[in-house]
Inverse folding.
């Protein structure tokens, strides 16, 4: 297959050995590494986005519910004609505020933890994704205990987050196995 466009002495395109590094194409072994890397990057993005959304969303809900609390108390006081024991009303309001701070503050703390974990997921993927997945599921259980309707609220988003974290966990486990195999091969001179 020689013609005037091929320079003499230069190998034909199909004469190159198959194992030759092509530069632009990854080797077959690195394809799995690239896929694992993509899952870990998705995990980082997922943790970061979910964390930020939790911080902003729970912060906003805290202020909305604090306003609603004051409105509900005022409405109940008007129902009884304004004659109430102000000390009991203040005590109830303080207790409700503490509950809201604990509830939303806890969710905001989990959001902050997610943001922090997002920066370390590529270095320690298995423990980080297990921690994130456990925190996320525990938070969902707490939300469901407080209000059973929370199970169905945002169900699609919850499923997506769990799937992304599960894929990242799989990628982390595969990467850890591969690293152990490489270390074992190097230790035994392979």
């Amino acid at each position: 297959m020689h013609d005037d466009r091929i320079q003499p002495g230069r190998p034909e395109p199909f004469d190159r050995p198959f194992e030759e590094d092509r530069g632009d194409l990854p080797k077959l072994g690195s394809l799995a590494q690239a896929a694992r890397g993509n899952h870990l990057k998705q995990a980082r993005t997922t943790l970061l986005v979910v964390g930020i959304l939790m911080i902003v969303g729970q912060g906003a809900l805290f202020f909305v519910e604090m306003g609603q609390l004051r409105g509900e108390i005022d409405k109940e006081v008007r129902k009884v004609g304004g004659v109430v024991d102000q000390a009991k009303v203040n005590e109830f309001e303080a207790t409700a505020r503490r509950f809201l701070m604990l509830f939303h503050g806890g969710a905001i703390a989990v959001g902050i933890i997610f943001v922090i974990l997002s920066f370390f997921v590529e270095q320690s993927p298995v423990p980080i994704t297990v921690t994130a997945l456990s925190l996320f599921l525990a938070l969902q259980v707490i939300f469901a205990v407080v209000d059973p309707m929370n199970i169905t609220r945002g169900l699609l988003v919850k499923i997506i987050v769990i799937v992304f974290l599960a894929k990242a966990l799989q990628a982390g486990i595969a990467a850890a196995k591969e690293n152990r195999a490489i270390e074992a091969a190097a230790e035994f001179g392979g």
